[in-house]
Write a structure and sequence with these properties.
Structural class: mainly alpha
Mean pLDDT: 86
Largest sheet: none
Order of helices and strands: HHHHHHHHHHHH
Shape: globular
Low-confidence stretches: none
Radius of gyration: 19 Å
Helix content: over 70%
Number of strands: 0
Number of domains: 1
Length: 237
């Protein structure tokens, strides 16, 4: 675990000094602020966090791949991947540390949204239990998105292409499956198993569902496994 901790610190520090990371964070916070004032902070409306959290889940489809696009693509392009592969670390340790680095930065973004809850608390009431479950869902969603973005970054040396692949995969799993489930009610039972928005909405409603928990955890591990295998294939080329 010493290797993982050291590499995670390296990755997280890179985000601290990354202009792209700050621009992405700024854009996300501006958009969530706009959505908050238009969909949540409305006179006479219920003080629910569900619309805000559901909207944030959609925004992260585009934000997270931008954060993850450099994780391995930059290593390939700069040639530092050779040094990393000859270091006394395993491929799994490399993947896990890069995942944890971006997930820590993502968690920081999520924590900043607490300011919206404070505003709701001033002008209304907050259901603490529902809010905590919704935040848990947001963290699980972020872990899954980060694993998909990391897998996309492992597939190419071009950062822009990595972000496009990441957004494409997440859009299919998030928006396309949701659209198809509405258009084809007969297949809703099957599509519901892979519909990210449907699984995430369970947490947004304040329901702690072990099925949805397993869904996000298993998919996260699956894409981290794929990223590890892709990195292993690079080692032997």
């Amino acid at each position: 675990m010493k290797n993982v901790v050291a590499l995670t610190q390296r990755e997280f520090t890179t985000y601290i000094y990354s202009p792209i990371a700050y621009l992405t964070a700024f854009a996300f916070l501006v958009l969530t602020g706009i959505l908050f004032t238009q969909n949540t902070l409305l006179p006479g409306e219920e003080s629910s966090v569900r619309p805000l959290f559901f909207a944030m889940g959609s925004l992260f489809v585009f934000c997270v791949p931008i954060l993850t696009m450099r994780l391995l693509s930059e290593e390939y392009a700069s040639g530092t991947i050779e040094t990393l592969m000859t270091a006394p670390v395993t491929d799994w340790e490399v993947i896990l540390s890069k995942f944890l680095g971006v997930f820590l930065f993502y968690t920081g973004l999520v924590v900043l949204t607490v300011i919206h809850l404070l505003i709701i608390a001033i002008f209304g009431q907050i259901d603490v239990g529902v809010t905590l479950v919704a935040y848990l869902g947001l963290l699980l969603l972020g872990a899954f998105y980060a694993s998909v973005g990391l897998f996309a970054s492992a597939c190419t040396r071009y950062q822009l292409l990595a972000s496009v692949i990441g957004v494409g995969l997440l859009a299919i799993l998030t928006f396309v499956t949701d659209f198809l489930s509405l258009q084809f009610p007969g297949a809703r039972a099957v599509l519901g198993k892979v519909n990210v928005r449907g699984q995430f909405d369970v947490f947004c409603r304040g329901i702690f569902d072990t099925t949805s928990l397993i869904y996000f955890l298993s998919l996260t591990v699956f894409f981290l496994f794929l990223a590890t295998k892709v990195l292993e294939s690079k080692r032997w080329r």
